């Protein structure tokens, strides 16, 4: 930090003093307002930018980058330039923790969009929280992240800095159970999960609701996240004659599982959550994927005018990768932070002093986003409980039905 002193000396010293003062700020050329000095606030992105889940992670990254570019172009926060800082968590806990540590050590980081995986979020939350860095996930669905380990009996918010724009597995699992039992008239299912926080939690809430409705879980199996041969688990559930298999996990494993099920003569639909709702599932599962089912949070992005505009803007930006399943939620997450920054950075002298005010403002945001109304409840959860069922048809997922979940 430099202070300028008023000294009545020659013009050269005055010029030097002014130059020295200027080195303490940054000049922005993206919406900075006529070339005047601007300060920089960074929004981190923690997502799998490489590895099996990179199709989802890169869609998250680019959607956040689009929101930030549009904010800078419109000079959304006068005197400030926003900068995206993507970090690759590989969809794994340790790289995720390292990414959070790097962002937490940067005094210019004001918020973070991420993560994709619930298990990674469990490592990221305790790193960002002590620094009062706002975190908004577009994809975490584990209920415990916002309501604690005992979320069903005694919900208690563990981290005040954590929010999410998607709904949770407390809603998604039961939503899938109701569709299978009430709409598809399936009364017997087998369940499989990959032992990770997301898959285990999803199967847990699905199972509870399915049994409550009167359905029967005829087999319950687990696989390892890095398994590729599922013959043993298929052989274990096939004799129980399920009418469908509900899978808790993500598309890199779900695709081969579906293919191997059908090849082994278990010709029933595989259904999963938002973790399998990607065209790559169908590529991995092959032609026999037709009829498989998934749920995902929210309405289809292309079903609303705001969603269509987002997709058009994303296409015009010419990113190499698709916005994928969480693009709209990531764009809304970034814009939730940006909306909060309009208040918290207005009179802030630096980023660190504005962090708590950003968290406070985030809790009050309310705007019409790409995925619907963006607002948060007392736990930091999205107030929107809209979900969609999809069916695999051809090379992509077709919409079956979109509904708001209501507690019975």
UniProtKB/TrEMBL annotation:
Keyword field contains Signal: yes
A family per Pfam: Peripla_BP_6
Domain Leucine-binding protein: residue ranges: 41-392
Endpoints of the signal sequence: none
InterPro entries with a match to the protein in the record: Leu-bd, Peripla_BP_I
Key word Signal present: yes
Highest taxon of source: Bacteria
Keywords: Signal
PROSITE patterns for this protein: PROKAR_LIPOPROTEIN
Family: Belongs to the leucine-binding protein family.
Protein name: Branched-chain amino acid ABC transporter substrate-binding protein
């Amino acid at each position: 930090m430099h202070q300028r002193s008023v000294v009545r000396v020659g013009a050269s010293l005055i010029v030097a003093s002014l130059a020295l003062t200027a080195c303490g700020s940054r000049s922005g050329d993206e919406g900075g307002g006529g070339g005047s000095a601007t300060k920089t606030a960074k929004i981190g992105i923690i997502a799998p930018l490489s590895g099996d889940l990179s199709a989802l992670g890169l869609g998250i990254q680019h959607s956040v980058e689009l929101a930030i570019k549009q904010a800078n172009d419109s000079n959304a926060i006068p005197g400030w330039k926003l900068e995206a800082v993507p970090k690759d968590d590989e969809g794994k806990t340790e790289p995720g923790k390292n990414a959070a540590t790097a962002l937490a050590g940067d005094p210019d980081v004001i918020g973070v969009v991420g993560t994709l995986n619930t298990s990674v979020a469990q490592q990221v939350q305790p790193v960002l929280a002590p620094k009062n860095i706002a975190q908004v996930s577009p994809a975490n669905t584990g209920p415990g992240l916002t309501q604690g380990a005992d979320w069903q009996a005694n919900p208690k918010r563990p981290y005040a800095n954590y929010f999410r724009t998607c709904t949770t597995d407390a809603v998604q699992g039961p939503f899938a159970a109701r569709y299978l039992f009430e709409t598809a008239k399936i009364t017997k299912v087998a369940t499989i999960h990959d032992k990770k926080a997301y898959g285990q939690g999803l199967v847990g809430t699905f199972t509870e609701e399915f049994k409550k409705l009167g359905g029967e879980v005829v087999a319950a199996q687990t696989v390892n996240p890095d398994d590729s041969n599922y013959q043993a688990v298929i052989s274990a559930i096939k004799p129980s004659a399920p009418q469908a298999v509900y899978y808790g996990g993500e598309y890199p494993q779900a695709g081969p599982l579906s293919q191997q099920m059908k090849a082994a003569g278990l010709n029933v639909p595989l259904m999963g959550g938002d973790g399998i709702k990607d065209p790559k599932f169908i590529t991995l599962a092959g032609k026999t994927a037709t009829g498989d089912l998934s749920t995902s949070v929210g309405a289809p992005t292309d079903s609303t005018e705001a969603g269509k505009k987002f997709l058009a803007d994303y296409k015009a930006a010419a990113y190499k990768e698709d916005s994928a399943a969480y693009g709209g939620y990531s764009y809304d997450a970034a814009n939730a932070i940006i909306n909060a920054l309009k208040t918290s950075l207005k009179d802030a002298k630096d980023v660190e002093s504005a962090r708590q005010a950003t968290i406070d403002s985030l809790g009050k945001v309310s705007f019409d986003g790409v995925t619907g109304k963006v607002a948060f409840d007392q736990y930091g959860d999205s107030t929107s409980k809209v979900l969609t069922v999809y069916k695999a048809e051809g090379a992509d997922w077709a919409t079956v039905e979109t509904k708001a979940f209501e507690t019975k």
